[in-house]
Specification:
- The structure is a homodimer.
- By secondary structure, chain A is an alpha/beta fold.
- Chain A contains twelve helices and eleven strands.
- In chain A, helix 5 crosses helix 12, helix 6 packs across helix 7 and helix 10 crosses helix 11.
- The radius of gyration of chain A is 26 Å and the shape is elongated.
- At the A-B interface, helix 4, helix 5, strand 2, helix 6 and helix 10 of A face helix 4, helix 5, strand 2, helix 6 and helix 10 of B.
- The first copy, chain A, binds a DNA duplex through helix 2 and helix 4.
- Chains A, B: One of its GO terms (molecular function) is DNA binding.
DNA sequence: CTTTTCCATGTGAACGTGAACATCCGAACG
DNA sequence: CGTTCGGATGTTCACGTTCACATGGAAAAG
């Protein structure tokens, strides 16, 4: 009455075949949706699989097809809202497409750490790679390792030998800066991300584009590390000089730290200083004052990255999806320049 | 001069064997650190591997050993600081131990979604599971699916058939509540997490324990969803009644939303209302006022989870590591009860 | 009525590795 | 000097699946 007691080994395609009274190959065909199977045969096989609680063996399949059905994600700064949201979306999308995802975090941004993480992914036999750790070095290392795995980066790297997801960070940064200019600010400081980050560079470029276009001067951007703590530190330094009326931070965390420092220094945001961030993390609208920032669709980015990579794996032509342009969200942290603070 | 051009197939253990003039089994032994290999032979094999750029085939190995060297993580609310930090730590620790990590996110907390995610992980042939989505239902489903995979949960579930990481959420919540009581607060409201979350329940229990011990009354806790937006919503409702002088929120995001609402309602934190959170996310100390909260070591939790799971996979006895007790961090959002607001 | 074609299915081999067992050889032992 | 032992290595097989090719039969084509 009860199904055969398992004898240690999991049921294989052959066990199913025996029970359904067909060859193992027929079972394989059912498994892979081969068209030339009589309905009645297919049903018998399916019943047998059900009865045995058969589960295909991924390793055996991978061995013979030499396809792992796994994609790798190289990421940095996980733990932060943006990257981890994108990763979650990547996993969801991959799962839906029948793929597995393996993530490797960059412990540090040293070449050694990058090589380590990449080796781990290569060892894992990933079919493709999504590079979410958009540091310039990563791509150098990637090129240096002579890895022939197709990969997709979340930022344009200037290299054209792979596909990049088009998120127009430059436009976002430019919009943020232009917003401040439109409010009458002439002295705008940029608190940028780390030097070797492509995202940081793009946002800086957008900032500078807007500044130059408006024919304004600016200090050299301060290079930060994305953290709120650094923002606080930078804010403390900045509030000693006060030769600016607005700051554009390359991400929200730094912007929030910045506002904290200004508050401590007795400066009012936005009356004395306007602050604009980037990312629109969930707390951005709940801090005091609510943060003006540039909204990014992290989940959408993750989804598209998967779509792009899968289409490449399938050898499909590049489907030029339209660029994602992040949108400025104006909240309370930015306001018109206050007369008393204009330095002319 | 140049190494053999690859003929489509990647070099196998046999190619290495041929080049090193040994049997393929000897190569296998070198690969697995077998002791009985002459040094000279080992070196010849290693040289051959180097020359051919040999990489072991994971699928073949998994097929013959029936071990995938992969652990699965079931998670929810990724994108938030805590879970994603733990996941990152899990990946680091697993990588160090030579394991791969596969994560499945819970799209919703419905049984169907849970089954989906678990199926995905089982399909992936994970050797063990770390359950980071500490919802009661998950364990019911897990039990219902009759999965024989060893798993580790990040919270005590009351079920004793598996290992749980000991993070004393109850003690943390109790400390937070006691802190408010010590400040003279008698009317404390608890903004809890979703009902079916084990963590939420533990924090609520800690809260109630402290309340009962101090012989205070309290409203039934408000059940939230962990988000800052919900905190804001709850804060708006709460500020209509004002029959309390302090709120203990089950996580920082809700606490921050709460403070936002109080600010909007003209209430001053901490003069009119004290607010305490839980988690100590990076922005907690930078919001206004800096948030008093309970600090959690998310990375440490992740590391320990891996250690625990691996020791179980190896069949080692349960190494009773000491409990992690999260620590109260007092900042500006909590203060002594203000005389004018005491309702007696 | 024979030949061709195509559908439904079966047979055998291969994928790359590790386990079990076999073999060879030199050293230790009596 | 024969026997035993164990270190170093080789041989064969199995893991579960898909692929290439083979087979039988029925329908279509001549």
């Amino acid at each position: 009455m009860s199904p055969e007691p398992q004898k240690g080994r999991a049921p294989s395609i052959r066990d199913v075949a025996r029970l359904a009274d067909v060859s193992h190959q027929t079972v394989s065909r059912v498994l892979n949706g081969h068209p030339s199977i009589r309905d009645e045969t297919r049903q018998r096989v399916l019943d047998a699989m059900e009865a045995l609680k058969y589960r295909p063996n991924r390793a055996a399949r991978a061995l013979v097809t030499s396809r792992s059905r796994t994609i790798g994600v190289l990421s940095a700064t996980t733990g932060e809202y943006g990257p981890s949201s994108s990763i979650a979306a990547i996993e969801d999308a991959a799962r839906e497409a029948g793929y597995f995802v393996n993530t490797a975090n960059l412990a540090a941004s040293t070449p050694a750490a990058i090589v380590d993480a990449l080796k781990h992914l290569v060892l894992q036999d990933v079919e493709g790679l999504i590079v979410m750790a958009p540091q310039v070095r990563v791509f150098d290392v990637l090129a240096g390792m002579a890895i022939d795995i197709p990969y997709v980066s979340l930022q344009s790297t200037g290299q054209s030998d792979h596909r990049a997801l088009a998120v127009d960070q430059i436009a976002g940064a430019r919009a943020a800066t232009q917003h401040l200019i439109d409010l009458g600010h002439h002295e705008i400081v940029h608190l940028a991300g780390p030097q070797d980050w492509i995202e940081a560079e793009a946002r800086m470029r957008g900032f500078l584009d807007a500044i130059i276009e408006a024919d304004l001067r600016t200090h050299p951007p301060i290079l930060g590390d994305w953290t709120a703590d650094f923002g606080y530190y930078a804010g403390r330094e900045l509030s000693r000089y006060r030769d600016f009326s607005a700051v554009f931070a390359a991400n929200d965390l730094m912007a929030i730290g910045l506002m904290h420092a200004f508050r401590d220094a007795g400066l009012d945001v936005p009356r004395d200083v306007s602050v604009v961030g980037f990312d629109d993390i969930p707390v951005a609208q709940h801090v005091s004052p609510p943060l003006t920032t540039v909204h990014q669709e992290f989940r959408e980015v993750g989804r598209r990255a998967v779509a792009l990579l899968l289409s490449e794996l399938r050898g499909e032509p590049v489907s030029q999806s339209e660029e994602i342009v992040p949108a400025l969200v104006v909240r309370g942290s930015s306001g018109p320049v206050h007369a008393a603070l204009v330095h002319y």
